[in-house]
Write a structure and sequence with these properties.
This protein is of the alpha/beta class. It has one domain: TIM Barrel (Alpha-Beta Barrel), CATH 3.20.20. The chain is built from eleven helices and eight strands. It has an eight-stranded parallel β-sheet. Helix 8 links the parallel strand 5 and strand 6. It is globular, with a radius of gyration of 16 Å.
Length: 264
């Protein structure tokens, strides 16, 4: 299924994240395919990075473990290739700008598209490079979701939202890394999402970072105007604690919770 079709559906989107090659290539592929079968509607593949600055300790540890098994970009491309052949859910990657630059933006976009990726979320692309990256991604055949920070000037936020393709990623928690679980202000998030939708009305908004429980996910979908949520740390933590037997029920609980809520 194309990313546009999934995000345009009436049901809330549940993005499920894991790091490519965690704990190894084969298990990482099996994990993402299992997430798709358990209710995830978009699969997000994290490219292993030496400095995953946006990620808290749980996901950062997964990055380190994955890098022991091979080079990050190659592991990511092979993971995307296998997962996209085994699942009909759209597969996107989450990749830091340093990785994209080192590989070459145009080359990265083409290779991801050839592997079957629907998009590549780069959370730290500099605002001055956002539009050029989105154009390179589009020419390569993938979407370029962008992270719209909640602590920046309105003009910069607007430019980021307008450059994004596929979706806009709006952090639920302000100034936090993945794994944050101390609660979020739903009214503030709804206000920010509303601002993003006004400047880019045709682009869906997804949120993550701080969505720590199924109940909170449902509240966010119901009250904040997002098309869905992306879950990372709860899944990676469960994988580390007990593998798929522990992680799959977490996906199922998040899916069941948000599917009871009407999008919008």
């Amino acid at each position: 299924m194309a990313l546009r079709s999934e995000l345009g559906s009436a049901r809330p989107t549940l993005g499920a994240f894991s790091v490519a090659g965690y704990p190894d290539l084969r298990s990482g592929v099996e994990t993402l395919v299992a997430f798709a079968r358990s209710g995830a509607t978009v699969l997000e593949v994290g490219a292993p990075a030496v400095d995953p600055w946006l990620d808290g300790p749980v996901i950062a540890a997964a990055h380190r473990r994955a890098l022991r098994g091979g080079e990050g970009v190659n592991t990511t491309l092979e993971t995307v290739r296998q997962v996209s052949s085994l699942s009909d859910k759209p597969v996107i990657t989450m990749m830091y700008w340093a990785t994209v630059l080192a590989h070459g933006p145009e080359r990265m976009a083409h290779e991801l598209a050839s592997a079957g990726a629907a998009g590549c979320l780069v959370p730290d692309v500099p605002p001055a490079s956002a539009r050029a990256w989105a154009m390179a991604a589009g020419e390569g055949g993938i979407a370029a979701p962008l992270l719209a920070s909640r602590g920046i000037a309105l003009g910069e936020m607007s430019a980021t939202c307008q450059a994004a393709t596929g979706f806009i990623y709006a952090p639920a928690a302000v100034g936090q890394r993945t794994g944050y679980s101390a609660g979020i202000d739903l009214d503030e998030l709804a206000s920010f999402v509303g601002a993003a939708r006004r400047v880019a009305p045709a682009t869906p908004v997804l949120t993550g970072i701080g969505i720590s429980t199924p109940e909170l996910a449902a509240a966010v979908v119901g009250q904040c105007g997002v098309a869905g949520v992306v879950i990372g740390s709860p899944l990676v933590r469960a994988l580390g604690d007990g593998g798929l037997e522990r992680a799959v029920p977490v996906v199922e609980r998040f899916a069941a919770s948000i599917n009871q809520v009407r999008v919008g």
